Amino acid sequence: MDTERLGQSRFLNILFKPAGWLMESRLRHWLMPPRKTLSGAGVGPGQTVLEVGSGTGFFTLPAAEMIGETGRLIGIDPLSDYVDRVQNKVREAGLNNVTVLKRDALDTKLVAASVDVVLLFGVLPYPTLPLDKLLPEMHRVLKAGGTLAVWMFPVSFGVPEAISRSGLFARLGKKNSVYTFRRTEN
Ligand SMILES: C[S@@+](CC[C@H](N)C(=O)[O-])C[C@H]1O[C@@H](n2cnc3c(N)ncnc32)[C@H](O)[C@@H]1O
Questions:
Q1: How far apart (Å, rounded) are the C-alpha atoms in residues 29 and 112?
Q2: What predicted TM-score, i.e. pTM, was given to this entire model?
Q3: Domain ranges of the chain
Q4: pLDDT tens-digit readout, 68-112
Q5: Which residues line ligand 1 (CB under 6 A)?
Q6: What is the CATH number assigned to the segment(s) 3-183?
């Protein structure tokens, strides 16, 4: 499936508009403050963070603030309207540590061993993000000892167990509803 091409489709971008409004609603901010969830992933100053499926940026801007000017956040999403929206928000907030790419996370084209934390927040399970292709790519881009952080809503559908079974990541724990894994060395 050519996810990057699908992400440019006018029809799909219109179809996903209402989901975007829900994802950035006040109710969601109130129910699950993004900084609290991000702290469960261990996001902190100076890190390079890869956010897979950055959507409308619910986690993007708070994460960029938490890593500070010495950190770098890369958001990846194939849906062009979502990416444009987040880029506007980043510009308006005057943040210069964020890059948002219209790209498929299965082939990030990022440099190997360049990322401290990968955020898989609200993106699993997803038909265009099969674990057998996503996990090897996340393993490739993470630095040795890097963290894979997964937040799912409302149920986990066996995803944490599947990640452990892959042998690419070892489970660390769960905090603020976020499962964390360490990249294993082969
Ligand atoms: C349910 S939304 C979650 C958005 C955001 N993480 C949040 O929690 O608000 C899932 C996002 O994953 C993106 N996505 C789907 N397939 C993808 C892929 N192959 N690579 C990167 N992002 C993808 C979708 O376009 C969508 O924006």
A1: 34
A2: 0.94
A3: 3-183
A4: 999 999 999 999 999 999 999 999 999 999 999 999 999 999 999
A5: 3, 23, 52-53, 55, 58-59, 76-79, 82, 104-106, 121-123, 126, 128-129
A6: 3.40.50.150
